[in-house]
User: Fold this.
Amino acid sequence: MKESKSIPVHLKGGDAARGLPARLHHNAWVVEDQERTRAFYEDVIGMPLIQFWIEEAPLPGGTTILSHAFYGMQDGSALAFFCMSEPKHHETYKSPSTELFNHIALKVDAATQDQILERIKASGYRNFTIEHGYCTSLYVTDPDGLRLEFTVDAPNLTEINEFQARTAREAFKRWNEGQRRSNNAWAHRELDDVS
Assistant:
């Protein structure tokens, strides 16, 4: 897939030349069962298995055999999942279950978000949606406790990003001074049950 060369508004003005990362390569998570993970990411979410490695990996005091599965996204990045061959290593290195605010967010368009929601519902996974104003977010938790967010940007995202480019530092300063007034004029929230 060809990568876009346009510079987002929040990186204009010299920030793009600072050597920022180009994109997410992958986010890794330790899982207990590769087939259960594959069924969720391929069958429910729709992300294809693009790499599967079986490797000997160094650990403190020795080595272990593990598998490393990658599920691809349109821009070439991936979500990756380790599975340890020995249960004692899984217990030592398993990823903690995430709470509401710990998650990974993936950008999708509205049609893709709707398709993912249909598959999530058909598979019986609990989910919820939040309208943030700057994006609409669908949340689901995978079988090993990783919370995923599938985000559709607002149609007026350029306007929102331009506002943030002008005001982010001032808002940051206000927060650090103890001021807690919202600066999100775009949020029209009808919160779903997020439990």
